[in-house]
Amino acid sequence: MQQALILLLVLVAGMGLSVEAGLLGPLGEKVGHLSATLSIFLVGALLLSLVLVFSPRPRLGTLFRQPRWMLTGGILGPIYVIVLTLATPLVGVGMTMVGILCGQVAASLAIDHFGWLGSERRAVDGYRVLALVMILAALWLM
Fold first, then answer.
1. Residue 113 in contact with residue 124, Cβ under 8 Å?
2. Within its chain, how far is the Cα of 52 from the centroid?
3. What CA–CA distances, in Å, run from 132 to 14, 26, 124, 139?
4. Is residue 65 packed enough to be buried (19+ CB in 10 Å), middle (13-18) or exposed (0-12)?
5. pLDDT in tens, 55-88
6. Sign of dihedral through CA atoms 38, 44, 21, 124?
7. Phi, psi (degrees; rounded to nearest 5) at 81
8. What whole-number distance in Å separates Cα of residue 94 and Cα of residue 98?
9. What is the pLDDT, as a whole number, of residue 138?
C-alpha cells in the first residue's frame, strides 16, 4: 500500500514537471530564460523556507557536514530548468518531456546497475533495457 502511494506521488510529480515546462517556456520568452529560471527557484526557496519554519525538526545543521559531492545536485536543478525554458517553445512540452524522460531513465539505469552515488545496486535486466528502447522509440516517433 505504501509503495502504491509513493508511486502515485511520483506520477503526480511527473505531471507537475510537464506543467512547469508549459509555464516556463512562455515565461522565458517574455522575461528571458535566466530570469524565468531564477523566478522558479525564488518561489521554491520561499515556499520551502516557510515549510521549514513550521517543520517539527528541521535538520539544516547537518547539511554542511555531508560530503561536498552530495551538495552538487543543486547545480543540476538550474541546468534542468534552463533546458526546459529553452526547449519547450522550440519543440513543445511533449517532446521536451519525453527527451528528458529518456535521459532520466538512461542515467537511472546506470546509477542503479553500478550502485553509483550511494545507491543500492539493482541489476539492469532485459525488461528495463526494453523500457529504455521504447522511450527512445517514443522520442523518435514524436
1. yes
2. 21
3. 17, 30, 11, 11
4. exposed
5. 888 787 888 888 888 888 888 989 999 999 999 9
6. positive
7. -70, -40
8. 6
9. 94
- How large is the angle between the packed helices 33-53 and 73-114, nearest 10 degrees? 80
Segment (H or E) for 91: helix 73-114
* Helices 73-114 & 2-31 angle (0-180, nearest 10): 140
Cell of 97: 518531456
d(CA 1, CA 92): 36
Judge whether 87 and 99 are in contact, CB under 8 Å.
yes
- What is the Cα–Cα distance from 20 to 22, expressed in whole angstroms? 5
Contacts of 103 (CB under 8 A, 6+ apart): none
